[in-house]
């Protein structure tokens, strides 16, 4: 156990560092800036490096590494971390000068970075992004870590959490306002100036120059790209004509995504758009639901086919806005159309409406849910449970249809067998084009409600089973972690081990905090399970995501406040509460939660998800308060979170629910490594 002298701040600690801000406000600013910068890097790099939209949580893992290294550097140097703005400026220039984009002429849909793209190859640009993100975040983390020895352990952690919540709130507000990256860069430059402003003129130049480079480069990008910044994408569009037909090409994150054209022309060019209406036996279109309405072409086609009312669901408000302003047919101005800005699966779970036709219209999000390395925005839309939800909202004689460019024959068969499982009979499957496997899959509520052009041959022995809500990985054929992921994660861990040794010195410094390292591993798994669970229960929207992350921090802050103000049970007892919370979360299935009314579902989901999070952070707070070296202890915990981000890929094999079991095993390991003095105390 530590003595009072070890945990009590020295009276002149703030003046010793000579900063114009006192410790507490400096800690809030530094920690808020640290989280804001992490979120901004994730969004901005993903919008310019196409591999980050599909491949992995490189920036998140690099951020965890950098933050951990920043804490471990505390006490080993007195120099200010001017390297952080310099590396940030270099990163911005590299990304803007050597962007990775997809050729519009390439056929099919891009996933797993399988199609050709211009710019640096992934094996080169991804390591650069990972290392740069680590070095950039190491600077603010070092500034946060320097505040910790000046305060009581839990008080420092408290202000760190308040700053983190402020950073999330600021970035969420800017996302709501669709602020471009030049605003993010301006805030970063201001934060660097507040935290690092030097006395010497030459040092001021060294600080201001990279900040001006960042703001200037992002301003040029904003002005030249003409992009709209939605909460998910960097959206660019070009309006023009092709054979005297007006059209609008829309790219997101440098990837061709949509084309807004008149309904008549689209029906002439591509047969897939007409087939859902031809395969419906009744032809009745009193009520139509379109999921993935986008810029409005599918809605315009439904109206041209005689739909009397259309519910148009689109997750991205900027795509909807572009369609409202520029689509040649102006479908969103039609009084028969009602728009809904939300996630398609969430709409199906909440609506009481029933439809003659439900259409999944090219719902390929081309991006990942922030904070979950393998979950895409539309992942929960193609599971068995989603197809069953669609069936339940069909009127008698109604039909369900989906179309897209699926690239692989087994993928078409997998989706068709998923529909067959949900509807109880074989659907109609039309391969419109062998190139890119452009296909339409249609199923009536009953076999009599569909009119197939030919019988689908059925799933083959090579067809993978339908995806489910627990493993919603449609594009993963086998129940395994792809070899490229294993290789990449292995390299990340090797680089991280070398970086820790080079920056922090011998590993022996962290040996007393092995249990805190494992607490970081387990907590990241627990957080991932919460993010994915709430995405299923309430939608994969950016609002839900921001609320979950903020909720996690609020639960952590509550645990810290309870530990500071009250006498909480001993660590063995709190570990018991934690494991009981994990067991409760394991026993309460998402399928049961989805059946509850929305207000009740929210209350139960919050209790089930945040009970183990609260207990885990009471454990951490008690253990951290008694640590002999707060910055090393905190750094070890953050490095553990990075390893947890790597272990998150186990969900590709075992599913998200089983992450609770993995987390439980890791927590047991942390308890086994708990020092005797901490266990007795």
TrEMBL record:
InterPro entries: SAM-dependent_MTases_sf, Spermi_synthase. The keyword tRNA-binding does not apply. Keywords: Membrane, Methyltransferase, Transferase, Transmembrane, Transmembrane helix. GO terms for cellular component: cytosol. The chain crosses the membrane at residues 27-46, 52-75, 82-102, 122-144, 156-176, 182-198, 205-229, 484-504, 516-536, 542-560, 572-588, 600-620, 632-650, 656-674. The keyword rRNA processing does not apply. Pfam families: Spermine_synth. CDD domains: AdoMet_MTases. GO terms for biological process: methylation; spermidine biosynthetic process. One of its GO terms (molecular function) is spermidine synthase activity. This is SAM-dependent methyltransferase. The lineage of its organism: Bacteria, Bacillati, Actinomycetota, Actinomycetes, Streptosporangiales.
């Amino acid at each position: 156990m530590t003595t009072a002298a070890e945990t009590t701040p020295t009276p002149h600690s703030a003046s010793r560092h000579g900063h114009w801000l006192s410790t507490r406000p400096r800690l809030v600013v530094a920690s808020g800036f640290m989280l804001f910068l992490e979120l901004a890097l994730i969004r901005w790099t993903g919008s310019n490096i196409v591999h980050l939209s599909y491949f992995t949580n490189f920036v998140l893992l690099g951020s965890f590494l950098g933050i951990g290294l920043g804490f471990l550097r505390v006490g080993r140097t007195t120099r200010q971390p001017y390297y952080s703005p310099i590396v940030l400026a270099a990163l911005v220039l590299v990304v803007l000068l050597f962007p990775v984009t997809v050729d519009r002429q390439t056929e099919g849909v891009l996933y797993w970075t399988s199609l050709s793209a211009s710019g640096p190859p992934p094996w080169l640009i991804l390591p650069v992004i990972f290392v740069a993100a680590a070095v950039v975040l190491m600077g603010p983390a070092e500034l946060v870590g320097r505040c910790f020895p000046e305060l009581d352990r839990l008080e420092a952690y408290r202000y760190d959490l308040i700053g983190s919540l402020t950073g999330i709130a600021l970035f969420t507000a800017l996302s709501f306002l669709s602020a471009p990256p030049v605003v993010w860069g301006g805030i970063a430059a201001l934060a660097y100036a507040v935290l690092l402003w030097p006395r010497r003129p030459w040092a001021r130049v060294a600080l201001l120059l990279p900040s001006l480079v960042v703001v200037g480069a992002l301003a040029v990008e904003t002005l030249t790209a003409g992009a709209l910044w939605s909460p998910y994408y960097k959206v660019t569009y070009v309006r023009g004509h092709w054979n005297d037909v007006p059209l609008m090409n829309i790219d997101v994150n440098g990837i061709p995504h949509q084309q807004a054209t008149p309904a008549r022309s689209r029906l002439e060019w591509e047969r897939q758009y007409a087939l859902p209406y031809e395969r419906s036996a009744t032809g009745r279109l009193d009520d139509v639901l379109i999921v993935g309405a986008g810029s409005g072409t599918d809605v315009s086609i439904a109206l041209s086919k005689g739909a009397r009312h259309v519910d148009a669901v689109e997750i991205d408000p900027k795509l909807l806005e572009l369609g409202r302003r520029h689509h040649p047919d102006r479908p969103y101005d039609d009084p028969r159309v009602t728009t809904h800005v939300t996630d398609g699966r969430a709409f199906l779970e909440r609506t009481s409406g029933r439809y003659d036709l439900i259409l999944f219209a090219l719902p390929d999000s081309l991006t990942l849910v922030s904070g979950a390395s393998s979950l895409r925005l539309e992942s929960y839309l193609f599971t068995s449970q989603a197809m069953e939800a669609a069936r339940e909202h069909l009127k008698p004689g109604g039909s369900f249809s989906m179309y897209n460019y699926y690239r692989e024959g087994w993928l078409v068969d997998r989706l068709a067998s998923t529909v067959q499982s949900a509807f109880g009979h074989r659907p109609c499957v039309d391969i419109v084009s062998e190139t890119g496997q452009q296909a339409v899959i249609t199923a009536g509520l009953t076999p009599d409600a569909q009119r197939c052009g030919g019988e689908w041959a059925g799933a083959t022995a090579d067809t993978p089973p339908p995806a489910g809500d627990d493993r919603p990985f449609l594009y993963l054929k086998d129940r395994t972690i792809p070899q490229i992921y294993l290789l990449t994660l292995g390299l990340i861990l090797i680089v991280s081990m070398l970086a820790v040794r080079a920056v922090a010195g011998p590993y022996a410094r962290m040996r007393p905090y092995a249990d805190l390292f494992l607490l970081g591993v387990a907590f990241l798994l627990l957080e991932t399970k919460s993010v994915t669970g709430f995405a299923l229960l309430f939608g994969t929207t950016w609002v839900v995501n921001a609320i979950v992350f903020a909720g996690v921090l609020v639960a952590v802050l509550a645990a810290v406040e309870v530990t500071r103000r009250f006498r909480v049970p001993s660590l063995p007892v709190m570990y018991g509460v934690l494991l009981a919370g994990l067991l409760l979360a394991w026993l309460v299935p998402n399928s049961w939660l989805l059946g509850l009314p929305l207000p009740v579902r929210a209350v139960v989901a919050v209790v089930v998800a945040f009970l183990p999070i609260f207990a885990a952070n009471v454990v951490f707070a008690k253990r951290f308060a008694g640590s002999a070296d707060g910055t090393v202890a905190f750094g070890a915990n953050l490095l553990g979170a990075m390893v947890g981000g790597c272990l998150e890929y186990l969900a590709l094999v075992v599913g998200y629910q089983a992450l609770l079991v993995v987390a439980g095993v890791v927590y047991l390991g942390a308890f086994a490594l708990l020092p005797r003095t901490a266990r007795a105390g």
